[in-house]
Amino acid sequence: MTGIADEILMLQYAQGDVQAFSELYFRHKNSLYRYFLRQTATPELAEELYQDVWNKLIKASPSYQAESKFSTWLYRIAHNELIDHYRRHASEKKVFSASIEQVQEKGQALSVRHHCNREVHNNDNDEQGIEDVKAGFLADKNQPNVDDELESKQQAVQLKWCLQQLPREQKEAFLLKHESGFTLNEIAQLVGETSENIKSRIRYSINKLKHCVRHNMGKFYE
Amino acid sequence: MSDKMTDHDLNSLYHQGATEQPSDALDQCILASAEKQANIAHVQHSHSEKHTNSTFNNNNSATLTVEESDVNASSDKPSTQDVVALPTKIQAKKIFSRKKPLYKTWYGQLSTAASLVFVAALYLQNQPPIRSFAPPHDTASYDEQQIGSERLESEMLDSQMQQSEEIEAAIHSQQKENHSMMMQSNKMSQQKQQASAEALQGLQDRSLPQAKVIENNQPSSIIEGLKIIALHLEKGEKEQANIVLKALLTAYPERQKEITASYESLQKSNLEKDDR
After folding, report:
1. How far is CA B149 from CA B143, B146, B152, B161, in A?
2. Cβ contacts of residue A71 below 8 Å, gap of 6+?
């Protein structure tokens, strides 16, 4: 069943094949979960939206027609769910206000650590990696021979924090491109924008992330 | 850390950190709801399959018995064979249940054609009647032609009127001329009668000079002239007879032959008388 296309699996599930759905679910669950996790304030909210999307998909499965890619359909539901969530909570700023305030209050380095700890609470390995980074940093921050692995882990953690600071549209475009692997045209179709706009959003997001990672890592090592 | 970070570096860095996963409890929850929905769908599907089998039972009973056995044999968790076979059944059901759009049906097309014909008939009915062979869009040239023909007709009428007036004028002038000619001829005849009477008186008198005889002895008519000539010939006055003859010939040149013939006969008769 691993070689079967998503669309066929979905059609099979629409006929009552649960195995087809489980295959489909395990193919897309991680990227979709991270899509929500990066764009919401808390993992609980991400899980809530993530579950809603899958429930909607399950309910809509009897009327599914393989007219477009399954992944496009799935992420369109996810995008709409996110937009609805923003509307329900009056504005996007309100949703993110808590995390931003926390960052401002606790200081950047600590907030990075806090934020990353909160974000990666579901992954024990990742948390262990962060602990290692923290331990190494606290032991001797002026140590000349820093391990490359540790450095890349620090950068990855820093990148997640930087990603949180991006505007919503740029963040979503970046995630759909690099997390879910969509093309520019697919993202444009999914979000309802022109491919030129999507291209510029991705370009801006990458430049900002590069700058953010460099700048804050410098601060981190000071 | 190097200052230059490529897009690829950023991408790999992101994927290095992107290791979060939903919790197992959440996975189980979603899979359980999916299974529940699948069971509901499966039950509905089996019901609909039975329904379709019963409705189309008369047409293809052989194939339907096979499908029915498949449906009855399917367990709660259907096998892959069932899954492969099911879409075709559902598609068939959709084909039967899906209503054809109106424009694809024969009566839809017929109604479209009829409405088009009706519109065309209305259009033709509201068109102005064709007056000439000229194309209907060339109204300017048509108007020009019409104006030209009207002008020609008016000119023709004018010329006819002028001609008729000229003819009437000519008739009037001819009538006047005829009248004047009649008057002149009457005058001439009166003058001739007077002259003949005077000539007769002159002949009786014989004393009148020859010039006056010539003037007065002009015959008013041919018979009178011939009588005068006969009188002169009886008397042996050939010269006077010749003068009267000349006067007759000048007066009636169209009867020259008759006058000369009668004159000669008169001369012969006189000669015969003289011989006796």
Report:
1. 10, 5, 5, 18
2. A6, A28, A180, A182
Q: Residue A189: which H helix or E strand, with range?
A: helix A184-191
Virtual CA dihedral for B193, B199, B200, B201, nearest 10 degrees? 110
Our separate counts of H helices and E strands in chain A read 11, 0
B148-172 burial, b for 16+ CB within 10 Å, e for fewer?
eeeeeeeeeeeeeeeeeeeeeeeee
Counted residue by residue, chain B has a size of 276
A145 at B interface, C-beta within 8 A:
no
Q: Is B47 on the interface with A (CB under 8 A)?
A: no
Contacts of A33 in chain B (CB under 8 A): 20-22
Q: Which domains does chain A have, with CATH numbers?
A: 6-88 (1.10.1740.10), 99-221 (1.10.10.10)
B140 close contact with A: CB closer than 8 A: no
Cβ separation A15–B90 shorter than 8 A = yes
Dihedral (C-alpha) A81, A84, A86, A90: value to the nearest 10 degrees? -160
Is any Cβ of chain B less than 8 angstroms from the Cβ of A20?
yes
A55 to B30: CB separation less than 8 angstroms, yes or no: yes
What pTM does this model have? Answer: 0.46
How do residues A11-64 score in pLDDT, each as one tens digit? 889 888 889 999 999 999 999 999 999 998 889 999 999 999 999 999 988 888
pLDDT tens digit sequence for B237-258: 888 888 888 888 888 888 888 8
ipTM above 0.85, yes or no: no
Nearest-CB residue to A156 (from B3, B17, B90): B17
Residues 6+ apart with CB under 8 A from B42: A15, A16, B74, B76, B78
Residue for token pair 């032959």:
B257
* Contact between chains at B19 and A120 (C-beta distance less than 8 A): yes
